[in-house]
Design goal:
There is one protein chain. Mean pLDDT is about 90; it is low at about 245. Strands 6-7-8-3-9-10 form a 6-stranded mixed sheet, with helices on both faces. Strands 2-1-4-5 form a 4-stranded antiparallel sheet, covered by helices on one side. It starts with a strand and ends in a 9-residue tail after the last helix. Helix 3 (about 95-105) runs parallel beside helix 5 (about 140-155) and helix 5 runs parallel beside helix 6. The longest helix is centred in the C-terminal third of the chain and has 16 residues, at about 170-185. The protein has one domain: P-loop containing nucleotide triphosphate hydrolases (Rossmann fold). It has helices at about 40-50, 75-80, 95-105, 110-125, 140-155, 170-185, 200-205, 220-225, 230-240; strands spanning about 5-15, 15-25, 30-35, 55-60, 65, 80-85, 160-165, 190-195, 205-210, 215-220. Helix 6 (about 170-185) links the parallel strand 7 and strand 8 (about 190-195). The protein contains 9 helices and 10 strands. By secondary structure, it is α/β, with parallel strands linked by helices.
């Protein structure tokens, strides 16, 4: 059984279709990278998976259990599907540690000592242990985004969703965030990533899904997609990028 299944998903705003008959599955430990032009529905698709958007057709299954359009216990689903956004959404009046502990302590009722230990280990892993008592205003954009990733990881989700997490960063800060995500992929974390960083996508993905105008146009292994795209639309999209493999 796939960990996550998207079956014939339809998303509309009023009568305007945003996503049309989207279907794919995600295996445990797989890294899916979703690419496509701006406005094609990539971010909306992630928000549907996390229950932030209602869908008008199809279904989303997590571990075989239908999770789409649930209302009463969606907060429990979000503990299983973590999401990191473009904007870091850190609480400015809380230091780094308190931002990270809020979910595990309030939502999951976990023991404080155990949660602090995990937070410290994760901060150490992303190179931010020395910022544990700092406030968001004292951090760079890249540091804030790494804290946001740690905050999501500390909930121990089964799947991590990343929505253009480097889009708001200065170019010199992008790599420090991408390195953290590459490290997570090497550890076998299940991830679905929306990005415009094509070099990163090629380096980290097990599978590329190319979306345009709310439809899956093409999907496949990254080397196949980037070197021999099967559709004219994918070839047109890729022509604007130059690729150097991340070492």
């Amino acid at each position: 059984m796939a960990l996550l299944e998207i079956n014939h998903l339809v998303k509309q705003y009023d009568a305007s279709p945003i996503l049309n008959d989207i279907s794919f599955s995600v295996e445990k430990g797989e890294v899916i990278v979703i690419v496509g032009p701006s406005g094609c529905g990539k971010s909306t698709l992630l928000r549907c998976m996390n229950g932030l958007e209602q869908i008008q057709g199809g279904e989303i299954l997590l571990g075989g259990e239908r999770i789409s359009n649930r209302t009463k216990d969606m907060y429990l689903v979000r503990q299983r599907i973590g999401m990191v956004f473009q904007s870091y959404d850190l609480f400015p009046h809380m230091n780094v540690l308190d931002n990270i502990l809020l979910g595990p302590r309030k939502a999951q009722k976990r023991d404080k000592k155990e949660a602090v230990k995990e937070a410290e280990e994760l901060l150490q892993r992303v190179g931010l242990y020395d910022k544990i008592r700092s406030y968001p205003r004292q951090l760079s954009g890249g540091q804030k985004q790494r804290v946001a990733i740690v905050r999501a990881l500390c909930m121990n989700p089964e799947i991590m969703l990343f929505d253009e997490v480097t889009a708001a960063l200065d170019p010199e800060m992008v790599r420090e965030v991408l390195d953290v995500m590459i490290d997570l992929a090497k550890q076998g974390k299940t991830m679905i990533i929306v990005t415009h960083e094509m070099q990163f996508a090629r380096a980290v993905a097990d599978r590329i899904i190319f979306i345009d105008s709310g439809n899956i146009v093409e999907q496949g292994k990254p080397d196949d997609f980037f070197t021999n795209p099967q559709t004219a639309r994918a070839r047109q999209f890729l022509n604007v990028f130059q690729f150097d493999k991340i070492k």
